[in-house]
Amino acid sequence: MLDKLRDSSRSFGSYLIFGVIILVFVIYFGPGGQSCGDIGAGSQLSWAAKVDGEEISLRDFRLEYDNLYRQYQAQMGDRFDPQLAQQMGIRTSAIDRLVTRKLLIREAKRMGIATTDEEVAEAIREQPAFQKNGHFDFETYRAALRNWQGITPARFEAQVREDLLVGKVVNQLRLSAKVTDDEIESTYMRENDRASIAFVRVLPREMEKEVEVTDEAVAALLASEDGKKRVADEYEAQEWKYKTPKRVRAQHILIKVEEDAPEAEVKAAEEKILAAKKEIDEGADFGEVARRVSEDVATKESGGDLGLFGPGSMVKPFEDAAMALEVGQVSDPVRSRFGFHLIKVNEIQPPSEKKLEEVQDELAREILAKDGSRDAARARAQAILREAEGRSLLEIHPIPEEPSEEPSPVVSGKTDAFPVSSDFVPRLGVASDLVRAVAGMDAPGLVGQVFEVGDAFVVAEVLTREKPDLSKLGETERGEIRERLLQRKRNEAIQAFVDRLKEDAKVETNEALVSAGF
Prior knowledge:
3 domains; 48% helix; single chain; Triger factor/SurA peptide-binding fold; Chitinase A, domain 3; alpha+beta
């Protein structure tokens, strides 16, 4: 393989094997990604997933995770951080991609699909990172591999070969997608059956203050079995409000060191944190030491103050140590994925809980206020509908030129034209019943009923109604629709194929890895 690269490194035409763009170099050689938690802390994290017993390594998971992390960070900027990545399930996505890749490689081999050395060589030659002055340079290639954490040319080329196999399977699936003229014309008819509407929304939540709830009504609700159940269900839904876990107010000192740092760096960081601990044990103020030696830029100037936090706010080793301390106590050094910490707890707020019996009157009053506001909002919307008969809806409730600073229970608006084949209405959201009613109208006019859409009651008037004319479907638009339908069918074919492979395989995911602290 190296001979093929060396011999053909002078000049090459640019082409893509079966339309596949090889991204493996981005994964292996891209800028450093984010650590994905305290990975490797224990034998339970020695693998990420298994496909029919064949392991997907922790190293491959890290590379895939880092690649995904960089993609999201490029789109979202500084808003994207490890905590958000955890909330979005990036770890699960990374594992799913690796499982899918392994299944497709295995299926390619079963189908007898192969990749030649020349195809692998050409894919590598096309990578800009291996080029000098726009052409592949063998020495640049070797230097890049040599500088990357010991990866060998053989390993890298094997990865490219497998990526090409995946690309060939995917390309076959893409080629299987077909679009007929009938499908194009049906899509054109659906997309061009359109309407625009004016609407008035009546919001129950803005009418709660108009509802009077009496003590007698509260007592009556709590006396009925249905009422008791509703109150109990509401208590469960608002459990977060009535059950507060233990929280602590703490400071910390951080000496940074990477999880996989050489032993000498780890030892140097440990010595620094132990020296800080010695100072504090001998009477130095924790905050002053933090300001002087801590490497946590966000908290250093405030003496390491972390404020008040509870379970789930910190990485697990840090949280476990903090929650075990007494007020005024300083921890021994704690190792997390960020480095070594010293933690001092300054306040403990014990867990608290309000029983259902303590808050049932409050909850019953909330339920009755919501019921009353819904009834009042529905009645207001019905009155608006009657008032609008034979008149323009926006004449009765015009759209304000400037938004009001005070919230109002009645809000007017209008939409641009939208397809009535969808359940979605711009500015209102999913509104299936409303869309069906609008689709059934052949001309502008008041829609003769009140609709419940999301958290509001809606009165609507059709402003424009556009019916499709197939004779206006030109070749350019026909081609655009064909391409969109093809892309959708290709994606569906690939997804269905992968789903079948997963159904036929035994896939295990290391849940300890997925649920580890961010």
